[in-house]
């Protein structure tokens, strides 16, 4: 099971190739679709020679107490489920994963749910879920001898890539949309030494330029079309199952941008079930911003039968800049995860995102705007009756609140939303705003300030 015996299988036509045969853009030479990592050994093994799920669970838990960097990583401690390297000594790790699964009692109570949790992937080394995917794919780049790695990004991928490349002593190239990423993320790419180019286009435009570059130059693409990214990003599914003693939650709610994360988590749960580690998979729902909702349109608005549905890119616009993506690469994989698990796909407004973010903040953990779509989406699912009172629900929070402090400050100062965006939500917004005020430097003035704020 430790052998590197993976193949890449085209998600569209099913063609199989070996890892090193992949083209620089990770698209199938026959049909142009994306690949998925597959481990043929898992299927062909006789049931009696399959790894014992009980033994694996024990081993993975024991590794958390080990002194070895690889064992302590929340990605590589599950390495039996991602044998993508010839030599695990090539793994580049910053101690990613093993993130906290927080209970959200206030938000749960407000929704009439007893069991609401947040898997906080913003608690990774560079502050987002991208670290779990980056440790996997960048390690492959190192093992294959690349000097340069590159990505187009709305910010978090570039921060993660730049950090892991720096750790590995590799060079990195970042293409980001000018003026459309949060400062926290841009500062990380600079600090970790990436060559950072701000292009006068959006994320989709940046990716287009990068794909032309990697076809010409020996640069390893680390966008999520790279299927190894998803192998790392599936490990939070294992951690969630482990945290509930291998009983999976009823619902998993994930933000949708380029749509790789929902695909990866779905793959993680599916593989766990196939290997007998869990008995079932959760319903996986994907939530997008109203202004960047191509999957919602495809799955919900598509008239007619399955065969007639057509995926259409949109011009993306949302203040949740991390998910400001109109033409997501992994839409087909994510659509399959939603459909196969019986989940939902819906969108939420700018005001709903801002409110949900402030509510998560009041739980004492915070998150970035793109992560807050999960709670906003859950409110809608609950109102529709799609989530029952007794259901166990996990929201995947993808980024740390400090990634985009400007958004938070604008919200609390009342400068975030235009009046027409806030319409109908004014009272809720006022109840959540906690603007800092200027107070005289005297004890009575400070004590007075403490009196007139909501509890
Ligand atoms: N949440 C955050 C904080 C993100 O940074 C992203 C994507 C997503 C959600 C959506 O995940 O793309 O897998 O559906 N950020 C990318 C980037 C695109 O470049 O950092 P997805």
Topology:
Layout: E1 7-10, E2 16-17, E3 35-38, H1 40-44, H2 53-63, H3 69-72, E4 101-103, H4 105-111, E5 115-120, H5 130-143, E6 148-152, H6 156-168, E7 171-177, H7 183-191, E8 195-199, H8 203-216, E9 219-221, H9 227-233, H10 235-243, E10 251-255, H11 260-274, E11 283-289, H12 294-301, H13 331-341, E12 345-348, H14 350-361, H15 369-383, E13 392-397, H16 405-413, H17 419-422, H18 426-432, H19 443-451
Parallel strand pairs: 5-13, 6-7, 6-9, 7-8, 10-11, 10-13, 11-12
Antiparallel strand pairs: 1-2, 1-3, 4-5
Helix pairs in contact: 5-6, 5-9, 6-7, 9-11, 10-11, 11-13, 14-15
Bound molecules: ligand F0G.
Residues 128, 130, 153-157, 224, 255-261, 322-323, 368, 370-371, 398-399 line the site of ligand F0G.
Task: Write structural notes for this entry.
The protein is α/β, with parallel strands linked by helices and 455 residues long. 40% of the residues lie in helices and 13% in strands. It is built from 19 helices and 13 strands. It has helices spanning 40-44, 53-63, 69-72, 105-111, 130-143, 156-168, 183-191, 203-216, 227-233, 235-243, 260-274, 294-301, 331-341, 350-361, 369-383, 405-413, 419-422, 426-432, 443-451; strands spanning 7-10, 16-17, 35-38, 101-103, 115-120, 148-152, 171-177, 195-199, 219-221, 251-255, 283-289, 345-348, 392-397. The strands form three sheets. Strands 4-5-13-10-11-12 form a six-stranded mixed β-sheet, sandwiched between helices. Strands 8-7-6-9 form a four-stranded parallel β-sheet, with helices on both faces. Strands 2-1-3 form a three-stranded antiparallel β-sheet. Strand 1 and strand 2 (16-17) form a beta hairpin. The longest helix is centred in the middle third of the chain and has 15 residues, at 260-274. The radius of gyration is 22 Å and the shape is globular. Bound molecules: ligand F0G. Ligand F0G binds next to helix 6, helix 11 and helix 15.
